[in-house]
């Protein structure tokens, strides 16, 4: 059985993090999202992959190559124009035979669940998850194990069984995709193809997801995914820890990284390669630090993703944030992460202010942002790439 992973989208809701990087290559727990999905699929016994790529696809191809570094085979199919999920899956026609699974490149799922999914042999299987807010999802109506109807986001959903976008198909699905009309959104929706199968009397069943599932749709979802993935790490020190530094809990330290005296690291934390940590800094749980990162004197970082080649200068505080590549925090930069009125925090996605539902959220910082000394950044702020908040230019 092969796995088809949909990784062609632009990830517009994840901007500004995705202007020059596909969403599937954003890092959580110091690995691209796509690698976590592939690892789970390999753990389920699958070693042949078809990646449907498009937006900045070279980043995917250069990182994964032919898959030999993971002991698997990867084939690539380019989707030049994103016209819906059915169109994306159709690109796998001719690359799969018999049953195959389909995974979205931004949905994390465990290997244990995928093992159960690949054992099913229906014409199609939808992975469903019980949710508290079904009106925000496409949901399925069921009778026994069979799906009777697929309903896109509705103000009066028939069930609380959300469609997670994880499927098992037989290659007969391609016949139905060929007959699928454009939806009201002007796209080819795989749910419409599956509804046609149901109407034709084909066996479309569902399997209930009984463990963690995270749909990484917006930047702050990365923090939830990061926290979940870090729960499973085991300490591994390939760097150098000076004698008066403190390591507590599960902490991974990469090659050629130096943790200097006075640093206090409280796991779970992952630190990449060639990093300079401290002295006298405090790295708190659920933080991941990429490669070639500098964390300076008297810096505190908590529950934050720090990507490659970023420098957080001395006397800075960063919490509950996502920080892109090659950023530089001027000395004394502080990131607020809690509203004074204790309400949930609003942030910006696709140019609109939305309620994140989070009590704590700091900054979403794109690549190559440089802050001036003593810069203060308010809760939920989104900083575009190459901006320089707090700096005064002297001519």
TrEMBL record:
Q: Which reaction does it catalyse?
A: alpha-D-glucosamine 1-phosphate + acetyl-CoA = N-acetyl-alpha-D-glucosamine 1-phosphate + CoA + H(+); N-acetyl-alpha-D-glucosamine 1-phosphate + UTP + H(+) = UDP-N-acetyl-alpha-D-glucosamine + diphosphate
Q: In which pathway does it act?
A: Nucleotide-sugar biosynthesis; UDP-N-acetyl-alpha-D-glucosamine biosynthesis; N-acetyl-alpha-D-glucosamine 1-phosphate from alpha-D-glucosamine 6-phosphate (route II): step 2/2; Nucleotide-sugar biosynthesis; UDP-N-acetyl-alpha-D-glucosamine biosynthesis; UDP-N-acetyl-alpha-D-glucosamine from N-acetyl-alpha-D-glucosamine 1-phosphate: step 1/1
Q: Taxonomically, which superkingdom?
A: Archaea
Q: Where is the Mannose-1-phosphate guanyltransferase C-terminal domain?
A: 265-384
Which InterPro entries does the entry link to?
Answer: Bifunctiontional_GlmU_arc-type, GlmU-like, GMPPB_C, NTP_transferase_dom, Nucleotide-diphossugar_trans, Trimer_LpxA-like_sf
Q: Where do the Nucleotidyl transferase domain residues begin and end?
A: 2-231
Please verify whether the record's keywords include Transferase.
yes
Q: Name one Pfam family in it.
A: GMPPB_C
**One record GO biological process:** UDP-N-acetylglucosamine biosynthetic process
Which Enzyme Commission number(s) are on file for it?
2.3.1.157, 2.7.7.23
MF terms per GO, please?
Answer: glucosamine-1-phosphate N-acetyltransferase activity; UDP-N-acetylglucosamine diphosphorylase activity
In its keyword annotation, does this UniProt entry include Nucleotidyltransferase? yes
Task: Show the stretches that span the lipid bilayer.
Answer: none
Q: Which UniProt keywords apply?
A: Acyltransferase, Multifunctional enzyme, Nucleotidyltransferase, Plasmid, Transferase
Q: Which family does it belong to?
A: In the C-terminal section; belongs to the transferase hexapeptide repeat family. In the N-terminal section; belongs to the N-acetylglucosamine-1-phosphate uridyltransferase family.
NCBIfam families (alphabetical): Arch_glmU
What name goes with this protein?
Answer: Bifunctional protein GlmU
Q: Name the species this protein comes from.
A: Methanohalobium evestigatum (strain ATCC BAA-1072 / DSM 3721 / NBRC 107634 / OCM 161 / Z-7303)
